[in-house]
Structure formats: structure tokens, C-alpha cells
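Hey, sorry to bother you again with one of my protein questions. There's a protein on my desk that I can't quite get my head around. No rush at all, and the record is pasted right below.
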Amino acid sequence: MKEEGIVVVKEEKRSLLGRLFRLAMFVVAVYGALTAIAKVMVRLANRLEEDNDGSESKRYLNFMNGRNIRFSGETVSDVEVNAVAAGVELDLTEAELSEDTEVCVRTMMSGVVVKVPPMVRVEVDDTDVLSGFMNLVPNYENEELPVVRIKVQSLLSGVKVEMKAE
């Protein structure tokens, strides 16, 4: 008969230098992946925004950056803002709004502020998941005022609609 015994396995100690090397390689890999994704997103954003000039429909994409979008004297009917890990301020206070202006805001881990001019009615349709939404615009009852319809879809984000002070 063959006897079976207990085999002692000696645990190999990992050096601090080896652990730091692995951690540095992981950080470099994550940084490289995020840099590549950011470059692709910037190209996509530039391609998306090429059609904005001269159009009443505007589309914007922001990825891991901050941005102020301001319209001065432009006619705007539709605005779409997509933000991923970004901060965006959309200023419609000096824009020429159509009777029914639609603003669509889609965010993920971002903060977005939408500024509207005085004396407009704001109608909001929001879908928030672990997010916050704040509408600071007074609810005007006058049916003749222009309407800004804001549709918000957010995940882990904060969206605020405010009116420019007169």
C-alpha cells in the first residue's frame, strides 16, 4: 500500500516592488483605455456638432469635460445635450426661441444647468435614477407665453433649470 502524507506548500511572499509594478501597470492600462475612449468620443462629438451651424436643431455631446453652450441671437427650436461624466451649462437666455422649444438632456454622472429667459413657461418630463432634478422657474399661467419643453433622462446626475434674473 502507498501511504499518503501531508504536503506542505510554502507560500511565496510577494515583494513590495512587484505589487507596486502591478499597480502601476493597472493604472497605465486604465489611463490608456480612458484616453482612447475620450478621443473616440471627441471625434463623435465633433461629427455630431458639424450640423449645428445654420440649423435650428442643435446636438451636443460632452464626455469627461466641462462646457458652456450659449446662444446669442440664434433661432433655436430643438436642443439635445448628452453628457457623460461632464458639467454642462446650457444658456438659452439670449436665444430666439420658437413657440415650442424642446430641450432634451441625457446625463450620466454629470451636472447640467439649463438657463431660460424670463417670461417663458417651462414644462418638464423627467426620468431620474439616483439623480436630482430642480426646476426653479416660476409656473406662469399665461397661455400666450412661449413654451420650453424639457425632457430629462439622468443617471447619477444633477439637473437644474433656472431663469435669468431680469
